[in-house]
Each structure stands twice: as C-alpha cells, then as structure tokens.
Write a structure and sequence with these properties.
alpha+beta, Rieske Iron-sulfur Protein, seven-stranded antiparallel sheet
Length: 342
C-alpha cells in the first residue's frame, strides 16, 4: 500500500512540475522572534518535547551484531544502547547504580559486560548487576534492585527510537512508535535504511534547534546557499506531505516531470523516495549520489548514500549540534571510503 501511496504522491508532484506550480498557503504567517530566543520557552521545549517524545538514537545497522553497543548523550541524558546476545536492543541510562559514574565513554563497540571505571561494578547486556568488587567486604546487596535504569526503545524501518525518560508503569522498555510515527514509517521504510551500512559520521555545530530544523524544511535556500553543490539553477520549490508532525518535501522539477515518459510500473524506488524526509522533532533524511571509483556503470547498483541528520539541542536556546550519519547500500572499498570521507 505504501508504494501505491508513493506513486500517487509522485503523480501529483509530476503534475506540478509540468505546470511549473507548487501548492501555496492561503496567506503569510509571521513567527515571533521570541519563539526562538526566549529561554523559558526553550526550557519548556526540552522538558515537553525532547524529554517526552521518541527521539532518533541512531541507525539500526550500527548495532546489527549481538554484543554491539553505543554510548551517547542527548539533552544532558547519558544513554547506553546494547544489542544483547538474544538479538534484542535495550536502552539504559549510561550511569552506574552505585555512585552515578558514567559507565561507557561516548562511542560504539562490542562488549559482554559494562564495567564502571570508578569502583568496577559490572553489568551484563541486559543491564543486570553481575559483579561487585570485593563483594564479601561490601555487605549485602540485592543485585536485582541495582541494575541499570532502563529507557524505552524500539526500532522501525532501520532506525532506533528511544525516550529520555524512564517509565515506572511496568513497561520499562516499551515505546509506542505506532502513535509517535503516525504511519510515516510504512512510507519511509522504502528508503531501505534497514539494509544499509554505516560508512561515516560527522558533527556540525549550529544555532537554536528550531532554526536548524527550519532549514531541513526549507528548499528555498538550496540554489543560493548550496549553489556550489547543487548549482544556481537548482529548483527552490517544494511540495509537502505530512504524517502527523512529520513531513516530506519534494521538488517539482525536471526530474519529476520526466516521469511522464516512463510507465508507472517502472518508476524506481529512488525516484519515488526522492526529497527530504523529516521526523519531528529533530531528524532529516536526504539522499545524494557519490562517484564510486570501483563501480561499473554498466552493472546494476546504487551509488546513492543517505545522510541522516540528528539534530540535538545545545545547552541553551542559542545553540545546537547536528550529528550526521552516512549510510550506504554497499560495503565500501578503501578507495570508496576515501571518496565518502572527502
């Protein structure tokens, strides 16, 4: 059904491309500057959005293997993701239950145990306390009550989503992604992120998180700010579709107009999933093509990478950090990896 929807949306965008039009709002809307600069409003956004709704924690392919883990921090909350030997992904507060020390430094790797660098208490992949240094001298400890604090986590369409706030209702690891994604995942699943490989990551400092997020939704700036990349004649028009608070924007340009010369049954996934996919409140997914030195153009294969931008609020209303994850549908050679990193 989701491919049928993508075809339907492509027809509509193609019609705009042929007519040289785009959907327009009924009028101009003004946004107060204070919405971006008010520190009290910013704190409410942290408390009521970032610490309540499911957030992107990373691509599933980074934690594909049992025993893999990743440590990161979002909005001041240290998080530890762990793929157990049973294949289940779990999320915890990255903090020892003894004295609150951070267990694992930011980064990823593989581990059977997580050992605190302060007093060497250790935890297994399920977050259970399994080791206490000099236990016979420490006194009685109920290890069942001193495991890592679990956080809700789930996976959809090759992405890991989680909450920063622990649950206390008996559903400690459960997260309602059906309600959060509003059916959007059934559509962006066609990006094929679940079958890709993490080939790079970089971090970019930015302004207020909403200013940065507005940039994801704004195609108007592309032929100006990014003219060296896309060219000055690149289309600045957009057609938007929404699933709850999530949006996809597509340019009604010559590429979409060219679909008129191709039977619908032959419209490729690449053509149907073009555009920028945003996931509220802090994610943008966009594809771009690279020149693969070892790729034979006569053979089938995809040279398109997906850039998943994970926008994180900074310590105040003036700043943010965007972590960009680069995914490829192939495992790059050393030569290809050099091109990607360039």
């Amino acid at each position: 059904m989701s491919r049928e929807l993508l075809v339907q949306l492509a027809r509509r965008t193609m019609a705009h491309a042929q007519a040289g039009t785009q959907p327009l709002a009924d009028g101009v809307r003004e946004v107060p500057v204070g919405n971006y600069t008010d520190p009290d409003r910013w704190q409410l956004e942290i408390d009521r959005i970032f610490k309540r709704v499911p957030l992107l924690l990373g691509p599933s392919c980074e934690l594909a293997e049992p025993g893999s883990y990743r440590a990161l921090e979002i909005a001041g909350v240290p998080i530890l993701l762990s793929r157990g030997a049973d294949g289940e992904l779990r999320s915890f507060v990255n903090m020892c239950s003894h004295r609150g020390a951070v267990l694992m430094e930011p980064g990823s790797g593989s581990a059977r145990r997580f050992t605190c660098p302060y007093h060497a208490w250790s935890y297994d992949q399920q977050g259970t306390l399994v080791g206490i240094l000099d236990r016979e001298d420490f006194g009685p400890v109920d290890t069942s009550c001193h495991g890592l604090t679990p956080l809700p986590v789930g996976e959809r369409a090759g992405l890991i989503f989680g909450s920063l706030t622990p649950r206390h209702d008996g559903q400690r690891h459960t997260i309602d992604l059906d309600a959060a994604l509003c059916g959007y995942d059934a559509v962006f699943e066609h990006l094929g992120l679940a079958d890709q490989h993490l080939v790079g990551r970089q971090q970019v400092d930015g302004p207020n998180w909403k200013v940065a997020y507005d940039g994801y939704l704004d195609l108007y700036h592309l032929p100006i700010l990014h003219k060296a990349t896309f060219g000055p004649d690149y289309s600045n028009k957009a057609v938007f579709d929404a699933w709850g608070p999530h949006q996809r924007s597509v340019q009604p340009d010559h590429r979409m107009a060219a679909l008129a010369d191709i039977p619908e049954a032959e419209w490729s996934q690449k053509q149907l999933t073009s555009g920028v996919w945003t996931i509220f409140p802090h994610v943008s997914i966009a594809g771009f093509v690279i020149d693969r030195p070892s790729h034979d153009s006569e053979q089938p294969g995809d040279t398109r990478l997906q850039m998943i931008s994970q926008l994180l609020p900074g310590p105040d209303q003036w700043s943010s950090v965007t972590v960009q994850h680069f995914l490829a549908p192939f495992e790059p050679t050393a030569e290809e990896q050099a091109v990607i990193e360039e």
